């Protein structure tokens, strides 16, 4: 029972977490972390050093990791948000050289947002320091997002087994919905509705994985069809920087008052943020909306829990 | 008697400071802060967390705030100088979402340089953590600059009442002279000379405010006309990035040896920096020049004083 | 016997270090620093404040300095990697104004990567805080790189006197080989082979210096000619950002299996990094390759040693 990746405590893919580890170790520890934040932090990681190396900017994710480290008393020894533009990478250095050099400074953990797909075998062979994937590209994932999403759902709904979840929007490019799908594959009787236009459908690799794990899923184009039955609506942002365009005439992909009125009282509305206009601001004040509240909090607690497990 | 903004300890506009607060609380506290820096810092803000969110780069202002926090023993928990380009803002996120998310990490204070105009009501409604305006745009201000300018003048001239001040250059775009004008409106018998070409005159809102507060002002185009009578010459940089062009043939807007020779021995020369060529380098060594010395120091002490009042 | 520059403890040029200081103070202190890192750091610079001001990005050098400061318990009080683009410099501020302003915050040391050539006299006159040159342009140098290179060679070869060193590649633009040449000029019986195409030959100033200090050097175009006799091959990256193009048909400038097979068993292969393709990856695993290991470590220890000498 562990979260180890190929013998090393790297955090690279959602697949590496066992259901037992998630339920008996990770989720309880997030509650301990919440208590630490309520007490304004602790010093259990005093003297431990984190490097944040972001090849793509992500103020939000970086801030969450850095606050997580600080609430545990650790140091953010080095951080850069534009590693691709500003670093040796621009001069042609390979990722392997960068990772080897960084390891010589003996950091305790390296958090990497990568603009390509991680090769887990390569990371394991190259980095002595534990690496946490803060989002990678290609067929990539965002495992700490999946952990925070799991924690958010678990806290609000009490369980994962048997839940019905609609994932909406740009499912093709969204690493968060990809990661969450892999996460849900570890549970039982889960039903997933993929609501997206035809040019942004969920990838075949995820669908194959779900089939293999007996997770029922259905693809549709109108959120209103399932809004009244789901426990969770997980909305995503259109990745315009990836060239995706959502053709709204193809279906109904926005969470607005119409969808809100259809939804059950005990359902929740999630979004990995940043949000543009795929959730109307009129939804923000609804008690079912957790994207500006519980999800952010769970992100902090989830990353603190990982750091404590890896470093303490 | 307070500096509170609408019930919250935000620092948004110069108008929110009362003369009594400035004289009995703020200015004395800046002297205490100077003593702390002389003693190489203290720990009264130990464990307190600052976020610096700059939508426009300003190495100088950010450095002043960060050193202020560190001299008090606090943590700069997160800092970014290009929030507009590098953050979720580029992906279309609203300022409100950003502010709400940041608040979930429970920072003790958020310092924001904003590339639009702050809506104080919106900030008050959205942010539980105190926000300090490190400069906003539009009809915006730079309240901590006004505080440091006030402290600089007060230390060197002993009082504000009755002083004569020339503000020179790009008065239209300069938030520092706008903020200082609002500040001077709280005092008595102050005379302001606005020295600028016709395309860069002080805004009507400031002039209306000064009239309302019985501050005499005059607009002219030749600094030499008033150089011999003023206690303070406050020079400003041409905001070329805002498209302003100063037509030097329209008047006399540069501080050089000619102006220096006209000025009184007890007058002072101020500039918010960065300086380009609107003050000749031959002026730098003159004891009346305070822009590379007293003003920087006062900026550190003023920001320390604010942080102590808000956080300690 | 000192490393002082013109009465101030600035670190600007390799020429300022005496052989005696290097051998009796600097090198022994780097070993002490290694022991501190092995013990996970110390607190001897607790409360001391470093500013990192990089006018050109260099993630690697900045990380080395920042970790050096942290392993000694000091604070990186302010850091920016794009001072030219993001700071007041873009608005036309002079370097002198910037340096004067920064000094007002009373940092204990200022680390500067500069995109022009340092004027040591100007730095000495302007900055009360010690300045460490983290690389400057023009006829500039990279003195801490030369110190780490010296330490690397000294540890692996036991001495400098009598060594034969090939410097390969873009010798014209490379400040590391320039700085190392000045460093070697302090020792006896050293032989340098400059291996470069005709458009990237070592500058005349360095060659004049070497002649003056009786260092034998030879210029050639085929690394294979000297590979079997040298103690050190120091490879450099082509500075494509400076417009340099290496015409490989002119000679043999790459370190690959062919060169490796020619080299002595006790020789070492160095590179200041980042490496592109001028050293084949097949060389990386060879015990003679020190560019991804010993050189990085020595960089950390060398910078720690400097910081301790300047600040403790």
List keywords for this structure.
homotrimer, 312 residues, Rossmann fold, 2 domains, 5-stranded parallel β-sheet, 4-stranded parallel β-sheet, 9 strands
Could you explain how this protein is built, in words?
3 copies of one chain form a homotrimer. The first copy, chain A, starts with 18 loop residues before the first helix and ends with a helix. The radius of gyration of chain A is 19 Å and the shape is globular. In chain A, α1 crosses α10 and α6 packs across α10. Chain A folds into 2 domains: 144 residues, Aspartate/ornithine carbamoyltransferase (Rossmann fold); 151 residues, Aspartate/ornithine carbamoyltransferase (Rossmann fold), CATH 3.40.50.1370. Chain A has 10 helices and 9 strands. The first copy, chain A, is α/β, with parallel strands linked by helices and 312 residues long. In chain A, the strands form 2 sheets. In chain A, strands 7-6-5-8-9 form a 5-stranded parallel sheet, with helices on one face. Chain A has a 4-stranded parallel sheet with strand order 2-1-3-4, with helices on one face.
């Amino acid at each position: 029972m562990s979260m180890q990746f190929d013998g090393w405590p790297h955090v690279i893919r959602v697949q590496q977490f066992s259901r037992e580890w998630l339920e008996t170790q990770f989720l309880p520890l997030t509650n301990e972390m919440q208590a630490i934040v309520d007490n304004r932090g602790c010093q259990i990681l005093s003297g431990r050093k984190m490097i944040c190396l972001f090849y793509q900017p992500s103020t939000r994710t970086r801030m969450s990791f850095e606050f997580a480290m600080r609430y545990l008393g650790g140091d953010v020894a080095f951080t850069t948000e534009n590693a691709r533009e500003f670093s040796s990478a621009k001069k042609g250095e390979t990722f392997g050289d960068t990772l080897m050099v960084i390891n010589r400074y003996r950091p305790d953990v390296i958090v990497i947002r990568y603009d390509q797909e991680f090769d887990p075998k390569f990371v394991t062979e190259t980095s002595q320091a534990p690496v946490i994937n803060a989002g990678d590209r290609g067929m990539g994932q965002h495992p700490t997002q999946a952990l925070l999403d799991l924690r958010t759902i678990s806290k609000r709904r009490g369980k994962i087994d048997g839940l019905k979840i609609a994932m909406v929007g740009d499912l093709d490019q969204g690493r968060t919905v990809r990661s969450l799908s892999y996460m849900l594959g570890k549970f039982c009787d889960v039903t997933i509705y993929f609501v997206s236009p035809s040019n942004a459908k969920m990838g075949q690799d995820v669908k194959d994985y779900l089939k293999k794990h007996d997770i029922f899923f259905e693809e549709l184009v109108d959120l209103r069809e399932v809004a009244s039955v789901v426990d969770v609506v997980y909305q995503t942002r259109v990745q315009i920087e990836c060239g995706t365009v959502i053709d709204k005439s193809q279906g109904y992909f926005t969470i607005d008052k119409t969808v809100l009125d259809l939804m059950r009282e005990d359902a929740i509305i999630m979004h990995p943020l940043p949000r543009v206009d795929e959730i109307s601001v009129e939804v923000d004040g609804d008690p079912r909306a957790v994207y500006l509240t519980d999800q952010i909090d769970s992100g902090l607690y989830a990353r603190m829990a990982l750091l404590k497990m890896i470093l303490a």
